[in-house]
Write a structure and sequence with these properties.
The chain is 9% helix and 40% strand. By secondary structure, it is mainly beta. The structure holds copper (II) ion. Copper (II) ion is lined by residues 61, 86, 122, 124-125, 128.
């Protein structure tokens, strides 16, 4: 059965009005960023570290970064760097919040205590969205703009490794880490 599809033209971002190509390219590069992580933490390897702090900025009607990966217990600050209002919120299972509206130069914090994936939106600008991935262990990495990643200090053992991109997770791939060794694993996303 066919369903009617509503096409909504995306409003141009402020940055796109001035430098269309570079802003679009930057946007695409941000969406190419993936998160690669161990399916489960090595036994006994995770020591509770100091509660972390991270930032997700609101700039040119975009969340910066588009993908943020943190450990549980981390507090994320959501500063508004635009001269317009935003209203950051999430309906995610692990953390629901609605920060309300606040002007440029102000910020509100949210602490994430449960592992999982948080989709972040702006109630005013429907084109604004971002992801926060919350892990109960430190063995994850956000890829750089060319898709490279390193997960450091993984204790020797066998693991499943997952690559996540824009809400889609790969099947876990097996990898064996030897003492002092380097394991290489390539993923194709999309
Ligand atoms: Cu907004």
């Amino acid at each position: 059965m066919r369903r009617p599809v509503t096409v909504v033209e995306r409003r141009p971002l402020v940055a796109e009005l001035s430098t269309p190509e570079s802003a679009a390219a930057r946007d695409a590069a941000e969406r190419n960023r993936s998160v690669v992580y161990l399916e489960s933490a090595p036994r006994g390897a995770f020591e509770q570290s100091e509660p972390g702090r991270a930032v997700m900025d609101q700039r040119n009607e975009t969340f910066v970064p588009h993908v943020l990966a943190i450990t549980t217990g981390t507090t994320v600050d959501f500063p508004n760097s635009d001269r317009i209002y935003h209203n950051v919120f999430s309906l995610s299972k692990i953390k629901r919040f609605d920060l309300g509206r606040y002007p440029v130069g102000h910020s509100r914090p949210v602490r994430f205590d449960q592992p999982g994936i948080v989709r972040v939106f702006c109630d005013i600008h429907s084109h604004m969205n971002a992801f926060i991935l919350v892990f109960s262990h430190p063995f994850f990495a956000v890829t750089d703009s060319e898709g490279r990643y390193h997960i450091n200090n993984v204790p020797p053992g066998g693991y499943g490794v997952i690559a996540w991109n824009e809400g889609v997770s790969s099947e876990p791939r097996p990898v064996t880490v030897t003492d002092g060794g380097v394991a290489e694993l390539d993923f194709a996303v999309r």
